[in-house]
Amino acid sequence: MAIIEEENLVAAAAGVEQLVRDLQRTVRSGITKTEKWRIQQLKALLKLIVENQDSLLQAVFTDLGKPAHQVVFTELLTLATSCKLAIKELKQWMAPKEVPVPPLALPGTAFVVPEPLGVALVIAPWNFPISLGVDPLIGAISAGCAAVLKPSEITPTVSSILADLLPKYLDTDAIRVVEGGIPITTALLAQKWDKIFYTGNYTVGRIVMAAAAKHLTPVTLELGGKSPVYIDDSVDLKVSARRICQGKWSFSDGQACVAPDYLLVQESIAPKLVETLKETIVEFFGEDPSTCAELGRIVNANHFRRLTRLLDDPRTAEKIVHGGERNEQSLFIAPTIVLDVPLDVPVMLDEIFGPILPIITVKGVDEAINIILDLPKPLALYVFSTNKAVQERFVTETSAGTVGINETVLHVAVLGLPFGGVGESGMGAYHGKHSFDAFSHYKGVYHKRMEADADGTFPPYTSARNNLIR
Ligand code: NAD
């Protein structure tokens, strides 16, 4: 490593250390714990979003080529809704909850009191670069934490606009943005945090968890995985195809953690479903999707090459039944369907995170469930069936962050649902009240009244024999 770079890193590490100390001091002052401060900050964040919509949309377009309405729908509206919910319900979330006290502990009362974990680190990815950084911040602020947001270096324009705007609206003694790539993130991870909230891939998830383990810091890991879709012959194919195509291609061109990764289709309907999906792709994105403004682009050349390598694997390439066109210069890959690839080709082994959709025909539910159980637990699992018994089998016999029935992706908007993975798709959850919980410790407080204690509760326990469990 060049000396100058090394010096910069040492300086950065020292800066990060000082930053954490400053934030710890703010938390210790008690300001972030007050309801007033939390509400002020949440209102300021809402104002930031409302007042800077145009520049935020432009920043995402510059980095990812995403059309404005997509960003409004998947990022700005989501954030505004999260802020408004937190503002409306904060008092209730913060209120201590009384729990029953057993006779042995009388006379007294007991409460569960949420307390802020302290100073939090939020590490965000690039695919929804505003909301996946700012939404966890809403949780941190609601819970009364100070926090550092580290946006993704892969979306530098968004990273820089967040670093510019957040200090203009929020209390800089408590909320800070640190920009940078792996060296800065490594320096941040070396610090002792009270909470780390990471969204991204599971390889880095392991690095984050190992760093957190050194300080016994609790983590939320929002990771990814292969989210399957099962479809049987009970459904309306047109309605299903529209919902699948929207979830796969309309939000970030398949580069969404909850996008359908592959389809498991009952064999009797497979040919008809493939045709319906093809028609729907043309209906949504036109005969030449490379000119369609509805579709975003692959984030960078590395991801473009990773995806084309998946497609160019000979056992996959021969199975392309739709799409496959690509243009490295414009980072475009057409919505692509591959039919009945072997389960051991690269496209079926790892999360695709791009516009390729493998379809595997299966005899029925048993085969589909076995395929799903052979892979790591997914972040989302989708079942398209009107048969209640089939729906129930997927809910009870598989494990996934969330099960969506006859839908894809939209469950993310249901703020009452915890959003998070299980197993390799992550741990912990957020959204709505769950975001408050992610940054809170639920502290037990038991208060015994200063009165004489009941007979037999102190030595000598002569009456203990009377208390034997019968
Ligand atoms: P990314 O490359 O932007 O990385 C995420 C963050 O990790 C960035 O801030 C980056 O600086 C940091 N990072 C990268 N390498 C690091 C290292 N070696 N050490 C420390 N920090 C490092 O984003 P990504 O991981 O490519 O995002 C895509 C993945 O994220 C997919 O797997 C997707 O499924 C998952 N994801 C999950 C969710 C969710 O909510 N569960 C949401 C979006 C994306």
Automatic annotation (TrEMBL):
<dbReference type="InterPro" id="IPR015590">
    <property type="entry name" value="Aldehyde_DH_dom"/>
</dbReference>
<dbReference type="InterPro" id="IPR016162">
    <property type="entry name" value="Ald_DH_N"/>
</dbReference>
<protein>
    <recommendedName>
        <fullName>Aldehyde dehydrogenase</fullName>
    </recommendedName>
</protein>
<feature type="domain" description="Aldehyde dehydrogenase">
    <location>
        <begin position="34"/>
        <end position="444"/>
    </location>
</feature>
<dbReference type="Pfam" id="PF00171">
    <property type="entry name" value="Aldedh"/>
</dbReference>
<dbReference type="InterPro" id="IPR012394">
    <property type="entry name" value="Aldehyde_DH_NAD(P)"/>
</dbReference>
<comment type="similarity">
    <text>Belongs to the aldehyde dehydrogenase family.</text>
</comment>
<dbReference type="InterPro" id="IPR016161">
    <property type="entry name" value="Ald_DH/histidinol_DH"/>
</dbReference>
<dbReference type="InterPro" id="IPR029510">
    <property type="entry name" value="Ald_DH_CS_GLU"/>
</dbReference>
<keyword id="KW-0560">Oxidoreductase</keyword>
<feature type="active site">
    <location>
        <position position="222"/>
    </location>
</feature>
<dbReference type="InterPro" id="IPR016163">
    <property type="entry name" value="Ald_DH_C"/>
</dbReference>
